[in-house]
Amino acid sequence: MRKDLLYIDSNVFVYPLIYDPEAVGEAKKSKDFLLKIALGKVEAYTASVTWDEVVWVLRKVFDLELSVKERKKFLNFPNLRLLGVKKSTVFRAEELMEKYRIRPRDAIHAAVALENKITTIVSYDKDFDDMNEVKRIEP
């Protein structure tokens, strides 16, 4: 049986890094979900721009040494597939922004997912809830 294809938003990667998983429910759920990805229980995809978002947060919160360590872990995350952003992705994102009045980065994430036939986005960002083309679930 084929696993559902899931697109992973950046907040799922960021929450366990910046919040204590024992104190913040979203961080704990994200950490547990990331373990499922690492173990291959979930077919997970994200865009190359997710790396940018994760690195930006890491640089703001942590020192350089820890930031480098964590961003390398992201790039080598087991069973996570990185998807590129093409010119067609940007045009699709523009259409989604006009249709739903969402932020550019959310539109890029949704467009990457849709271009790759992924209709479920794992995220805490409720902006995806207004979109008909995708379904948002939490970790």
Task: Walk me through this protein's architecture.
With 139 residues, the protein is α/β, with parallel strands linked by helices. It has one domain (5-137): 3-Layer(aba) Sandwich (Rossmann fold), CATH 3.40.50.1010. Helix content is 54%, strand content 14%. It is built from 6 helices and 5 strands. The chain has helices at residues 10-18, 25-38, 48-61, 64-75, 87-100, 104-115, and strands at 5-8, 43-47, 80-83, 120-122, 135-137. It has a 5-stranded parallel β-sheet. α1 packs parallel to α3. It is globular and about 40 Å long. The two termini are 21 Å apart. The relative contact order is 0.20. The model has no long low-confidence stretch (mean pLDDT 95).
Total strand count, please?
Answer: 5
Largest sheet: 5 strands, parallel
**Uncertain parts:** none
- Residue-averaged pLDDT, rounded? 95
Termini separation (Å)? Answer: 21 Å
What would CATH call the architecture?
3-Layer(aba) Sandwich
Query: Helix/strand-derived class?
Result: alpha/beta
Q: Can you list the strand order of the major beta sheet?
A: 3-2-1-4-5
What is the radius of gyration computed over CA atoms, rounded to a whole number of angstroms?
15 Å
Q: What is the CATH superfamily classification?
A: 5'-nuclease
Helical content class? 40-55%
What fraction of the residues are assigned to beta strands by DSSP? 5-15%
How many structural domains? 1
